[in-house]
Hints:
The protein is mainly α. It contains 7 helices and no strands. The longest helix has 28 residues.
Amino acid sequence: MTGPAMLPSSAMLPSLAMWVAMMTAMMLPSAVPAITRRARSRDGALAAPRFAGSYLGIWALAGCALWLLYRPPAHVTAGALVVAAGLYELTPLKRICRQRCRERVRSGLRFGVYCLGSSIGLMLVLVAVDAMSVALMVATACVVLVQKLLPPHPAVDVPLALAIVALGVVLAAN
C-alpha cells in the first residue's frame, strides 16, 4: 500500500495517479447503465460525457482523500473497520443511498455522491484488508455492480453484511 507518508515526494504524483485510475476502473463499469440512460435522454449523447465526468470526479476525490489519509491499519483496527463496514451495510443511510444510486438522475455529481454513500462500506473493507489486492478490487467492484443493478433483498444483503462482520472479527482476532 502506498500513501504519502511512505513515499518520497518525487513518487507522490504517480502514486496518486494510480489511486485515481484504480478508483475509476473499479467504479466506472457499474455506472455504465446510468450513463447510457443519460445518453438516451432528451439531452442526447453530449450529456453523457458530462454525466460520466462528474460521476468519476466524485470517485477521484474519494480516491485522493483515501490516498492522503491512508495508513496501514493494525489487525485490531482493520477488524474494527471491517465490522463497521458490515454494520453500515444494514443501515438506513446505506439503503437510501443504494436506492438513489439506482434511480434516474440528471446529475452525475448527485449520482456519484449517492453511489459513494452506497459503496463506502465496501470501500472500507478494501482499504482495511488490502487496498492493493486486485482480487479484492474485482470482488468489490462486482458487489458494487450487483448492488447498483438489482434491488435490495434481505436474503442477499443481510448474509453479505454478516459475512463482512465475521471477516472483521477474524481480522481483529489475528
